[in-house]
Model the fold of this input.
Amino acid sequence: MVPVPAHSRSLFADLTFAVSRNRYSPALRVGIELRRINGACENRFDNPTENINCVLGDLVINGSGLVSLRLDWYTYYFAGGSGLRVFEKIAEVRQYLGEKRAKGNRIGFVPTMGFLHKGHQALMHAAKEDPEVDLLAVSIFVNPLQFGPREDYRSYPRDLDRDKELCVTAGTDVLFVPAVEEMYPEGFSTSVEVTGVTEVLCGRSRPGHFRGVATVVTKLFNIIQPDCAYFGIKDAQQVVVIQQMVHDLNMPVRVKAHPTVREDDGLAVSSRNVYLNEDERRAATVLYRSLKLVEAEIKSGERDASRLKHILTENISAEPLARLDYAEVLQWPDLKPVDTLQPGEALAAVAVYFGRARLIDNVVVGVE
Done:
């Protein structure tokens, strides 16, 4: 813990500290973001050593770490490296990244809907470690276009302050957090739709979902203009849709997919896991167990897709708290339904409700 001077404690109420090691910043270069909670003002100091004393007295900062201070009126972030810059406006983030790009910086991008978890952090770390990337940008935007009318857009979990702390810890350089009105101003009437690979799995059970995904990702790619973009293979169909879109529209972005991050019991990490009560959380482990059974069958030589689908469906349906949306075994990566799996790779994928949480998961299996 960082010691707090007595006079600082007397000036500020509800002050808390979180300190964690930032391994991406071996040099002592301190960045501070000063953000008014109500959005009234936003300032930035790149080399604020002198400002630290005037704002917080003789507060001690560990040069190899991160200090986050939450106050009644302001939030301060102290981080090694270049620090986190937060943008809410398209024009401002474009200008900043354009200047960085003009100096030769290559941009890695992780688009998210926030309520960040270990899966998002793994994508950020992959980008930071990628030799093709010099600067990491992350977006947080809960995209209304990809939610159906009876889905959880309004109740989708949100915690921007916590997400900012996680971004700083991961070494994020730029965080883009636009409002809905910024992304979809009055009169917005354009959409992007990928066909073929969207006609199965979530595309079939959530009509319009991938139109919303393709539209927002196209906009984000145009705004951020990344060299590389990172997505988790847990959303396997989304990865295929975005790869198809990038190819078809000649977007100069390399889409990089990374393995699913799981809890110790196999459950894939997801922002929607927070919806689960204790019994539902325990029941949800049936997803990965069932997928692993199908994987074992394929590795043992089973090639009948309908039989493999039956195994998947039967095992998940045996869990009383599970309500099956779909269970499929398809050829990967073209997502084509087949009677007999062909050499290459297969995707076993499921979507299942536990209470109000709709969880998806999958495994990709080699087929000899």
